[in-house]
Description:
Oligomer: single chain
Distance between the termini: 31 Å
Number of domains: 1
Strand content: 35-45%
Shape: globular
Largest sheet: 8 strands, mixed
Amino acid sequence: xxxxxxxxxxxxxxxxxxxxxxxxxxxxxxxxxxxxxxxxxxxxxxxxxxxxxxxxxxxxxxxxxxxxxxxxxxxxxxxxxxxxxxxxxxxxxxxxxxxxxxxxxxxxxxxxxxxxxxxxxxxxxxxxxxxxxxxxxxxxxxxxxxxxxxxxxxxxxxxxxxxxxxxxxxxxxxxxxxxx
Length: 180
């Protein structure tokens, strides 16, 4: 059974995306904006941030590029201890995601501590391996990571790696916000 993914990529103007980044002090040449619940009222249960579907969005912004991707910013399942990345500004770097099924592949890895909310209520800050990596076609593939729909992954990672190289950035800021 295929996972739920919107029929098209998220639509948000570059100006709106830049305003959100600027309002949170993000000034790097290459930046990422994640919007949790982007499709909250049009996919899954209306008014609810669902798990296990690509109902979120990630935007890539640089001086030469702007692109949007269907994403998931929640764990695929709910069970005690599962991590949900808190809204905020986090730093990521190039590196491999170590998939249990396909082995390591290029992704974005934590470059600094992040804050997570655990299913069950606790909040922690640290290095948890909350990566940005490829999701699947039948699952979002997340135990707390941020995932991009499988069919859009190659375009996403090539764009991000290329723009980081072009602008000599070792890290990329990732701002995660909640849909208003």
